[in-house]
Amino acid sequence: MDQIIIYILILMAVLTVGGYIYNKNLAFDRYLLSRANQSEPLQLLKGSGWHSQASYHGYYTAWLVGFVSLILFVGGLYFRNGSQAYDLTWLALMLVTGASIVFFLNRMIKPDFAARTWVERFIHACLIVLSVIAVLTTFGIVLSLLFESLRFFSKVPFLDFLFGLQWSPQMALRADQAGQSGSFGAVPIFAGTFLIMLVAMAIAGPVGLMIAIYLSEYASATTRKYVKPLIEILAGIPTVVYGFFALLTVGPTIRSFAESMGFAVPTQSALAAGVVMGVMIIPLISSLSDDVINAVPQSLRDGSYALGATKSETMKQVVFKGALPGIIGAFLLAVSRAIGETMIVVMAAGRAANLTGNPFEAVTTVTVQIVALLTGDQEFDSPKTLAAFALGLVLFVITLILNMIALSVVRRYRERYD
After folding, report:
1. Contact 59, 119 (CB under 8 A)
2. Strand 183-184 vs strand 167-168: parallel, antiparallel, or unpaired?
3. Where are the extended beta strands (E) located within 162-208?
4. pTM, entire model
5. Cβ contact 67:119 at 8 Å
6. 107-121 residue pLDDT tens
7. Exposed (0-12), middle (13-18) or buried (19+): which is 46, by Cβ within 10 Å?
8. How far apart are CA 336 and CA 397, in angstroms?
């Protein structure tokens, strides 16, 4: 980064912060001067005759100076020609403009000036802009996936991709070059994805739910205070660490156990990836389920106890049924998390596109193939590379459907308590 850009960024920060402090203090001094002969507390209260507190005058100055300075900075970068005279003029213009705004706003610091209203309007506008950016970003992602996927389906039939049983994306780039046939049947990839997801949910589902029930209904306050943070630490471990753990510990352990039973099992398998992924998802299910169970009103528990039910009966017949929609939503969100995982599967399950239901064999997933197809020097006109976008589109649709189902289940079956 050029030194002049660094200087301009520092100048922008100084003008913004300095303008806030200067006009805030000036507004407060003028307020004190106007109240010098009165006995009320020296505070900018609603009924004190001033519309806005001194801090709002500072905020108004800060956002106006920052906004104008940002426009000048972006415009200066766009028209910059690299000459020293231009850079000095750019720096001087930034300084003069920022200082002029600060001193111009001095004249507007009056009791009837609605600085607070302008600041709130600015914050409201920023929130709208950020929301629009988030929505447009989502549309941009969907359109980019859809456009590239249509290019892929113009070269590979949609039904062959969706229902084909062989995945071998390697193709010969020239007529005289040896290469594979280029089969793009995605069924083995989806089968591997759902196999690992099922293994992970078989581990994380019962364990996470039982942890949530224990912490919310049976554990003491002291136990809950220490156990819940320890469990949630699992959510902060990087997935690459889970991948190393699966590759170096879980995979060899499963292979050694299978060999002792007389079976030949590779180190990389769907079972190894699924077990470690399940451990990673446990905090997600336990935390969400715990919050949902705690949201069930205590009056329902008390009523059940008053009718003679035990704690376990109350949990099964009252609390669990009341929290069931939220628990289902937590499970579906965990399924989406498992389907989208990449690093653990790359390191623990391998890249072999095997169409199998045996968890002891190596499989691959959608995310792993996307990484493999887009890694290295690739031609974006070839079906091999475009296949990654088709896989991404299908994965996006599957995840979207799961999230929509989770939301619909929660909204449809949610019990509202008075």
Report:
1. yes
2. antiparallel
3. 167-168, 183-184
4. 0.71
5. no
6. 888 888 888 888 888
7. exposed
8. 11
Distance CA 72, CA 92 (A): 11
DSSP H helices in 307-414: 311-314, 320-339, 343-348, 366-374, 383-413
Provide the mean pLDDT of the chain.
83
Unique residue bearing structure tokens 């720096």: 91
Q: Which pair of structure tokens corresponds to residue 377?
A: 């020097």
Residue type, 133: I
Q: Among candidates 386, 398, 393, 399, which has minimal Cα distance to 145?
A: 393
pLDDT along the chain (418 residues), means of 10: 80 89 85 64 51 84 89 86 83 89 84 84 91 92 88 86 82 50 81 90 92 88 86 85 88 86 82 90 90 86 88 87 83 86 83 82 86 74 83 86 77 56
pLDDT digits (tens, 9 = 90+) for 220-276: 888 888 888 888 888 888 888 988 888 888 888 888 888 888 777 888 888 888 999
Q: Tokens 């929130």: give the residue.
A: 127
Closest to 66 (Cα-Cα) out of 143, 135, 12:
12
Euclidean distance between CA atoms 250 and 280, whole angstroms: 14
- Measured between alpha carbons, how far is 125 from 133 in angstroms, rounded to an integer? 12
Separation between Cα atoms, residue 167 and residue 189, nearest integer Å? 8
| Backbone phi and psi for residue 184, each to the nearest 5 degrees, phi listed first | -120, 40
Give dist(CA 104, CA 39) in Å, integer.
Answer: 32
Q: Report the half-sphere exposure of 112 (CA within 13 A, side-chain side).
A: 0
Q: Among candidates 140, 173, 144, which has minimal Cα distance to 389?
A: 144
Residue 203: per-residue pLDDT:
92
Contacts of 281 (CB under 8 A, 6+ apart): 200, 201, 204, 208, 334, 337, 338
Task: Return the biggest CA–CA distance within the chain.
Answer: 97
CA distance 368 to 360: 18
Q: Is 168 helix (H, G, I), strand (E, B) or coil?
A: strand
Please state, in angstroms and rounded to a whole number, the distance separating the CA atoms of residues 21 and 55. Answer: 9
